[in-house]
Amino acid sequence: MQNTIGKCFSLASAFLMVVVVSCEDRPPAREEVPEPRIAGVETRILQEQTWKETISAFGVFDAAKEIVITTDFSERVEKVHVEEGDRIQAGQLLIELDRRKQQLRLARYRTSLKEAKATLANAQTTLKREEALFAGRNISKSRLEQTQLAFKTARARYEEALAAVQLAERELADRKITSPASGQVVKRAAEAGETVSPGATLMVLQVVDAVRVITYVTEKDINHLRLGSEATVIAPAVPGRTYTARIESIGSKADPDTGTFAIKLAVSNNEGLLRPGMTARVSLQGLTYRNAILIPDDALVDRNRRRVAFKIVEGVAVQVEPVVALSTIDQVHVLSGLQAGDRLIVGGIENIADGTPVRMIDADSALDTAS
After folding, report:
1. Which domain holds residue 88?
2. CA neighbours closer than 13 Å in the CB half-sphere of residue 171
3. N or C: more exposed end of the chain, with fewer CB within 10 A?
4. Same domain, yes or no, for 76 and 195?
5. Does the pTM of the predicted model rise above 0.85?
6. Contacting residues for 369 by C-beta, under 8 A, at least 6 apart
């Protein structure tokens, strides 16, 4: 029995030794290192471009020109032909003043002119006759001189009478007040039967075939604008229409409350759809930049509170922090940090970090050239 137990113990010990030796001789397992993940990205090759800066702002339409109708004399109002809000044409009759005194005065002056004209004709006939007599030595020189003086006097009286008639005709015409331009009546201050004083406002007109937009820009943009530069204007009240405008005035002094500068734009309004007080969205044409580098706004992402972009260098994403100056709705003007020829990552950028291996899945040759 003891021999049997001993044999079993010896066999178990030998088995354990074999197991231990086998475990010691086995080579250690190799740790598997995962291959780096290659991200698929969309790219663009940057090129230098000519770019026209656009400055966006909000504004308000105003009348391009306001005309105040007045008189330089006192007279009774006979009739007013228009109402506030009426659209009027150049030359249209607005107001009639009392003309009776001017009509009588003109009739009297015309009679005087007729008499002065007859006197001048007689004096001229006499002068010609006596010049002939003097040439034949039939009258004295002193008599000829008297005739010449009489002719000059008659001519002066005729010219005086003619001037009086012309003045009376103008004064009579002034009693009918017409519009100097096409527009709209925004104020009617005169009423029939009342007497108006010299310099008093009778009516106010606004020219409507041209309007003005007043907008404001910051000190950052003011020096980028030039007189006469083009702009586009959109009026929310007139959907579907875009108007071309030109800068006619650039403020020289900032508003003390807002720190902004006033810009005035001239806008054609031939259809009369634009009215003072309407709001406007304005796109001002700023400076033209040549050899500019532009990148899509989407190519900039936030990393640790910094706006960065990624370019590809030898198949790896390299983080850059470009210095930018201006931007449009979808493009950013880069001053430094990127240059022509760089391949910029513009798509699939969300999970990209500095040093990430990348694979181009939709590469274009270059960014679209700005017009």
Report:
1. 71-97+177-201
2. 21
3. N
4. yes
5. no
6. 47, 49, 50
